[in-house]
Amino acid sequence: MKGDFVQIGSYSYDEYLHVVKSFHGNLAPGLIVGGFIVDLALKNLPPGQYFDAICETSACLPDAVQLLTPCSIGNGWLKIVDMGRFAITLFEKEKGEGIRVYLDPRKLNAWPEFHAWYFKLKTKKEQNLDELMNEIKTAGADVLSMLRVKVKPEHMKKKNLGKTAQCPSCGESYPLSDGDACIACRGFSPYIEG
Ligand code: ZN
């Protein structure tokens, strides 16, 4: 049976579930689908030595990229361009040639629970989680589609913070391009106190 030999990146399916649970906190279905998405992109990488990643949603998928590739938010090789689409692109750093992989609704008809989850047709309570997980695993890459893309130059550059200064109000370092004081001291701090 196909399900017995499922691999995600360099992990067996069960190893991947284990890694997801310890990194993400729970077995989010989106992160399992995300594993198949990243795996398919890795198998179809454009030529070149180094690649970066773009994630088109901030939910779940970035964690799949961080678990299965060297690209992370922290090292700057993974960027989120949040368009709310369940897709990632891996692209060659120099030329921007990339492969975009997405969950394709046209391929979901054979998988009712998976389809209902993707289009949020059921509440969490109505959802049959075991059946959903089973469909996700069995479907694997069959519900995904791929596109060759070329990334715009402005999305290929590494973000440069430029010069920094000491904020006259809080005394901490901040990017000088933000103005005379840091963003927090100009009223945009997320904290009520401190
Ligand atoms: Zn400040």
Describe this structure in words.
With 194 residues, the chain is an alpha+beta fold. The chain has two domains: 7-155, 60s Ribosomal Protein L30, Chain: A (2-Layer Sandwich), CATH 3.30.1330; 161-194, Wheat Germ Agglutinin (Isolectin 2), domain 1 (2-Layer Sandwich), CATH 3.30.60.80. Helix content is 30%, strand content 20%. It is built from six helices and nine strands. The chain has helices at residues 13-24, 29-43, 61-68, 112-118, 129-139, 184-188; strands at 7-8, 11-12, 51-55, 78-80, 87-92, 97-103, 144-150, 164-166, 173-175. It has a five-stranded mixed β-sheet with strand order 4-3-5-6-7, with helices on one face. A hairpin with a 6-residue loop joins β8 and β9. α2 packs across α3 (61-68). The longest helix is centred in the first third of the chain and has 15 residues, at 29-43. The chain is globular.
From the structure above, extract its key features.
194 residues; alpha+beta; 60s Ribosomal Protein L30, Chain: A; Wheat Germ Agglutinin (Isolectin 2), domain 1; 2 domains; five-stranded mixed β-sheet; 30% helix; 20% strand; binds zinc ion
Short description:
The chain has 194 residues and is an alpha+beta fold. It has six helices and nine strands.
Q: How is the secondary structure organized here?
A:
Layout: E1 7-8, E2 11-12, H1 13-24, H2 29-43, E3 51-55, H3 61-68, E4 78-80, E5 87-92, E6 97-103, H4 112-118, H5 129-139, E7 144-150, E8 164-166, E9 173-175, H6 184-188
Parallel strand pairs: 3-4
Antiparallel strand pairs: 1-2, 3-5, 5-6, 6-7, 8-9
Bound molecules: zinc ion.
